[in-house]
Amino acid sequence: MNVLYCGDKNIEDGLVISILSLMKQVKEPLHIFVMTMDLTWGDQHIQPVSGETIRYLEDYIKRQDPENSITGINAAKLFQAEPPRANMETRFTPCCMLRLFADQIPELPDRILYLDNDVVCRRDCSGFYNQDMEEYELAGVPDYYGKWFFRKNLFHMDYINSGVLLLNLARIRETGLFERCRVLCEEKRMFMPDQSAINKLAVKKKLCPRAYNEQRKLRRDTVFQHFTTSFRFFPWLHTLTVKPWQIRQVHETLKLHEYDDILEEYTAVKAAMTAAL
Fold first, then answer.
1. Which helix (H) or strand (E) holds 206?
2. At a CB cut-off of 8 Å and minimum separation 6, what does 82 contact?
3. Which residues lie below 8 Å from residue 64, measured CB to CB, with a gap of 6+?
């Protein structure tokens, strides 16, 4: 199974947890790719996921299966060649848009599962990964909130969340989808720029059940749980953001203990990695 993560050094905690969850649920070898970059843009100073972290994680995942692999890819030069200028000052970090350069990386395979670093795999996702994608550029799940506000068609909720995407890179390279998304992000300021660009420009996207990107709360059929920001209405209207590596808040605020074994392993891996690095 080919898996893609994107981000800077700040994704490392989530990266570890997400990978550990995949190791628990997926019974085939994992080939993980991490697109990252080092970049200075105005007062923004972005540090990449370190090579030491990649090497430590590769050693760790190979202990379970020697065929597992993890590859770090520094995409700074690609990003600097086509920077999303209109969206560099938004609340979304430039690294959010790194996935739009995936078509430019020759070593990335034709089929790859993209995951945000705050996505935890709860059940075997092989069915999602192996679905028929011949006619589609990508597959994803409708955004829990955005499907109501950003849909193209009043009667068709087709605005997908970009945190879990099955990418048909071969098709994307043919249609030029990501190339057109990069141009749009360079020219037009948008809310959630990469997600908005994908939804606006994708010609063939496949809509999948909520279980494959649960953005609200754990349900019995959840395969991927995505720890996004959500709205809560009691005792007052407010937003709630709890990430998987915020273990105390996961327990106390979300009342969630579903992933305690993974979080315990994450704590041990992080301590050992810190000591080793």
1. strand 205-207
2. 101, 182, 183, 186
3. 23
